[in-house]
Design goal:
The protein is globular and about 60 Å long. The protein is built from eleven helices and nine strands. It has one domain: TIM Barrel (Alpha-Beta Barrel). Helices cover 38% and strands 14% of the residues. It is an alpha/beta fold.
């Protein structure tokens, strides 16, 4: 039997079955998951909740807005702090900067502490022996003071082994033009403070922070896409926090938010959205993020990217559109 006859017999014995064409869904939505580290505490329950999320979804990178105040509180052990934070990090993550105006952080930065204005409308105080300042608006300080605390925070975190990206988030989402000017002057190219005040209607209604968010970001909605902001120190790319954070948004609402962005007909090309949570409430609200991530785990229309990578994709898409005009 020659080779040709053998091949024919094999073909007859094992007929080829019709193959259905396999098509991968096209990525339509880039989602960033962020964590605001408030600088208050590193409770074991919150660290454990974050570790659990990372183990469940190891392919989802996070953008951590890290706060240098963990290292400026009295009687801290820098080695322990670093170890606890690093338990929650993956190699694919990004580390940006978050600032809350804790007294020790401001003093360490060479800035005189101010106890108001605050998010809650009353001066900051040492309630329960806790260091004041978390609730003080960064905008309470002048331009040079904001630059000082930004510069100090970058240096302190680098000293502790954290290499920061060019991404920033303002405390309470309250990034005024002055703040954006200051952080841009200190080298930050991306801001993610813009959000829709409607996410906070139930929890923050009647408080100064709610009115401030609405006044600073009147045009922002869950469908808002990245856009440049001109500051006196250069352009900064605003990557809106379209889904706020889990303290204010349920898992069902996060899912509905991302589905709404996917369904929006007026958005062309890649779309961008954002969800996240606070480290200090991860044990309580982390399950909301888990519910959302589980829902979209196998959805090929969505790709999870760090904020810096999302910004790169946005800029590349924008450049392509401009060239094509």
């Amino acid at each position: 039997m020659n080779l040709r006859s053998l091949a024919l017999l094999l073909l007859l014995a094992c007929p080829l079955q019709a193959q259905e064409p396999t098509t991968q869904p096209t990525v339509e939505l880039i989602v960033t998951v962020s964590v605001d580290w408030e600088g208050r505490s590193l409770d074991a329950a919150n660290v454990a909740a974050m570790v659990d999320l990372r183990e469940r979804f190891p392919k989802v990178p996070y953008t951590h807005f890290l706060n240098a105040a963990y290292y400026t509180h009295a009687d801290v052990d820098a080695e322990v702090i670093g170890r606890e934070i690093r338990k929650t990090l993956l190699a694919s993550d990004e580390i940006g900067l978050h600032i809350h105006c804790w007294e020790s952080l401001m003093v360490a930065s060479g800035v005189t502490f101010r106890d108001q204005p605050t998010f809650w409308g009353r001066p900051a105080s040492r309630r329960g022996g806790r260091e004041p300042g978390h609730e003080v608006e960064l905008d309470a300080y002048d331009l040079e003071e904001i630059r000082k605390v930004t510069r100090f925070s970058k240096e302190k975190l680098k000293e502790q082994g954290f290499e920061l990206s060019k991404s920033f988030r303002c405390p309470g989402w309250c990034a005024s033009a002055k703040i954006l000017h200051a952080v841009r002057a200190e080298g930050f190219l991306i801001d993610s403070s813009a959000t829709d005040a409607a996410w906070h209607d139930q929890e923050l209604d009647g408080l100064p922070i709610h009115a401030r968010i609405r006044a600073l970001w009147p045009e922002i909605s869950p469908l808002s896409q990245p856009y440049p902001i001109e500051t006196t120190s250069g352009e900064i790319l605003e990557m809106p926090d379209t889904g706020a954070l889990a303290d204010y948004v349920t898992g069902e609402e996060m899912i509905a938010h991302l589905e709404t962005v996917l369904a929006a007909e007026k958005l062309n090309g890649l779309r961008f959205a954002h969800i996240g949570f606070h480290h200090e409430t991860a044990a309580r609200y982390g399950p909301r993020v888990r519910e959302c991530l589980e829902h979209f785990a196998d959805d090929g229309r969505i790709a999870f990217k760090t904020l810096e990578e999302a910004a790169r994709l946005f800029r590349a898409q924008k450049k392509t559109v401009e060239i094509g005009k």
